[in-house]
């Protein structure tokens, strides 16, 4: 005689709830795994960027240097660097890679390599940018970069500059408050390998302040969508001309950040380099 075992009763809704909970738990575990992997990649990118930015500023008699660097994310696309030529002139480059985050930081690493490999052209800004551009075009996959490279002679105040689609640089007379601009029109780097660049030459009066910057400052927007803009930027530059370089760049960044509104901060990477002559 066969015994028939009655099936154990179950609640269909409870079973579905348990299955759904298991599926969500599995999805949550997968998201956590991907987040950990992303954080590891971000940490590597942060280390790469830390290695390509200067850890200290060159000491040049007659020139005081201050820098404010603030990426929008843990890593950013703004780049700057210095070198001193054998004749004592100071070379400075500032660049803004299109985009943000890890892709932009990797292009910045390429820019660092190109900057270091082309020192033989460092005394001729237009050739220097042309050589860097040729290198970048091989690897940047049409990722464009704006940049300005200049040479500053502390003995004479002479400035020689070349521009690659970057903003014009304000040269402030700290005594009078007058501003002149260092600028020559050109296209960004990273797209056309045979692109040529021109040069701009001028002389800074003793007591001048030169500011190199990326557009994160002037393109900061408030809650109404208004740009901070060049006019406000130049006004703050004039108003802070009596401050030392460190306080100047801090005040400019703080004013633009306040303009953006509480909790908004900047919508782009920010880099400011102040050179007092």
Write the layout of secondary structure elements.
Blueprint: H1 12-52, E1 64-70, E2 78-84, E3 90-97, H2 101-117, H3 125-139, E4 145-152, E5 158-164, E6 169-173, E7 179-182, E8 200-203, E9 208-213, H4 229-239, H5 245-260, E10 270-276
Antiparallel strand pairs: 1-10, 2-3, 3-4, 4-5, 5-8, 6-7, 6-9, 9-10
Describe, in plain words, how this protein is organized in 3D.
The chain is an alpha+beta fold and 277 residues long. It has a single domain, classed as PPM-type phosphatase domain (Phosphatase 2c, domain 1, 4-Layer Sandwich). The chain is 36% helix and 23% strand. The chain has a five-stranded antiparallel beta sheet, covered by helices on one side. The chain has a five-stranded antiparallel beta sheet with strand order 2-3-4-5-8, with helices on one face. Helix 1 runs parallel beside helix 2.
What's the quick description here?
The protein has helices at 12-52, 101-117, 125-139, 229-239, 245-260, and strands at residues 64-70, 78-84, 90-97, 145-152, 158-164, 169-173, 179-182, 200-203, 208-213, 270-276. With 277 residues, the protein is an alpha+beta fold.
Q: Please name the CATH topology.
A: Phosphatase 2c, domain 1
> What is the mean pLDDT?
82
* Spatial strand arrangement across the major sheet: 1-10-9-6-7
pLDDT < 50 stretches: none
Q: What structural category characterises the helix and strand content? A: alpha+beta
Termini separation: 107 Å
CATH architecture: 4-Layer Sandwich
CATH class bucket: Alpha Beta
């Amino acid at each position: 005689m066969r015994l028939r075992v009655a099936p154990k009763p179950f609640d269909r809704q409870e079973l579905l709830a348990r299955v759904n909970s298991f599926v969500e738990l599995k999805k949550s575990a997968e998201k956590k795994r991907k987040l950990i992997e992303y954080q590891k990649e971000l940490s590597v990118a942060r280390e790469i960027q830390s290695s390509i930015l200067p850890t200290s500023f060159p000491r040049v008699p007659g020139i005081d240097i201050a820098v404010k660097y603030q990426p929008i994310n843990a890593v950013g696309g703004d780049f700057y660097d210095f070198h001193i030529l054998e004749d004592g002139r100071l070379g400075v480059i500032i660049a803004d890679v299109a985009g943000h985050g890890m892709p932009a930081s990797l292009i910045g690493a390429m820019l660092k390599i190109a900057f270091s490999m082309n020192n033989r052209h460092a005394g001729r800004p237009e050739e220097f940018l042309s050589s860097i551009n040729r290198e970048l075009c091989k690897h940047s996959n049409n990722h464009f970069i704006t940049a300005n490279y200049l040479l500053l002679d502390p003995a004479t105040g002479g400035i020689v500059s070349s521009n690659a689609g970057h903003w014009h640089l304000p040269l402030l007379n700290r005594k009078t408050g007058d501003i002149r601009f260092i600028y020559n029109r050109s296209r960004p780097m990273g797209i056309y390998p045979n692109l040529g660049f021109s040069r701009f030459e001028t002389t800074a009066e003793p007591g001048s302040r030169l500011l190199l910057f990326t557009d994160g400052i002037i393109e900061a927007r408030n809650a109404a969508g208004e740009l901070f803009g060049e006019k406000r930027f130049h006004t703050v530059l004039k108003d802070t001309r009596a401050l030392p370089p460190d306080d100047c760049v801090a005040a400019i960044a703080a004013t633009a950040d306040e303009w953006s509104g509480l909790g908004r901060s900047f919508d782009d990477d920010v880099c400011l380099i102040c050179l007092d002559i």
